[in-house]
Write a structure and sequence with these properties.
Elements: H1 2-28, H2 36-69, H3 74-77, H4 80-105, H5 123-127, H6 135-168, H7 173-202, H8 210-221, H9 223-233, H10 237-245
Helix pairs in contact: 1-2, 1-9, 2-4, 2-6, 2-7, 6-7, 7-8, 7-9
Length: about 250
């Protein structure tokens, strides 16, 4: 679990570092400028880390499922080599996914100006600048990505159905509490991540205007990676004791 948390922490750190420093610099210097190549790099890194985090959260759901529902097989199914392979698969597929999206997005001719109505380079906002039907390729790719993401979400939900079914069968209250304390932080992180993304990309077009789009973008791009360390730290006894004293 801590191996996956290390990977999640690295993804969260990169997530914040991709967007926030540039936005802060623009705010301090009273500018909204970003170079074309800088925008492409930001899109690539953002999509890479976004997909990596979702993939890793899916892997962590499987890790919790094996730990609680198949504890006797845990060392076999989730040994160190298996964990490294799963993490490498999450990073590798996310890298390829990001390359595909970035190359597809920036191969589209843009003729509707050069103003992205967002505080960072976001693919849907860039597609609004397209002047040909070629943007439909990226829309199609986004639709396929949504289907894959929905599949991961279903996998996570089914894993937790099995987990909670197994936990409720545990006779001791202490055992149930330990199992829930292991799963709840991950479930909260997944819920926060998925709910903000769904609200950002599935809201009705009539609700789309710059101010709201910016607030929603902050919700799904800044809030989850900021809160993740705090959510997982709540399992740390020393930190909880310190908070009680405060």
């Amino acid at each position: 679990m801590y191996f996956f948390l290390l990977n999640l922490s690295l993804l969260d750190l990169g997530f914040i570092s991709t967007i926030v420093p540039k936005s802060m610099a623009n705010s301090l210097w009273d500018t909204r400028a970003i170079s074309y190549s800088g925008c492409a790099v930001q899109v690539f890194v953002f999509v890479f880390l976004f997909a990596g985090e979702y993939s890793l959260l899916t892997v962590m759901a499987y890790d919790h499922y094996v730990a609680i529902c198949k504890p006797l097989h845990y060392e076999t199914l989730m040994g160190s080599r298996a964990c490294v392979k799963m993490a490498a698969a999450a990073w590798g597929t996310s890298f390829l996914y990001s390359v595909l999206h970035t190359a597809n997005t920036f191969s589209i001719p843009l003729c509707q100006g050069n103003t992205v109505e967002q505080f960072f380079c976001e693919i849907p906002q860039i597609l609004k600048l397209s002047c040909s039907d070629s943007y439909l390729r990226e829309v199609g790719l986004l639709a396929v990505s949504a289907c894959v993401g929905f599949g991961c979400f279903v996998f996570i939900v089914l894993s937790y159905v099995q987990i909670f079914t197994a936990v409720l069968r545990i006779p001791s209250e202490q055992g149930r509490h330990k199992a829930f304390s292991t799963c709840i932080p991950h479930l909260v992180v997944v819920s926060l991540f998925v709910s903000t993304d769904m609200f950002a990309y599935l809201k009705h077009p009539s609700l789309s205007f710059p101010a709201l789009d910016m607030v929603v973008a902050v919700l799904y791009s800044v809030v989850p990676p900021t809160l993740n360390p705090l959510i997982y730290s709540m399992r740390n006894k020393e930190l909880k004791d310190a908070l009680r004293k405060v």
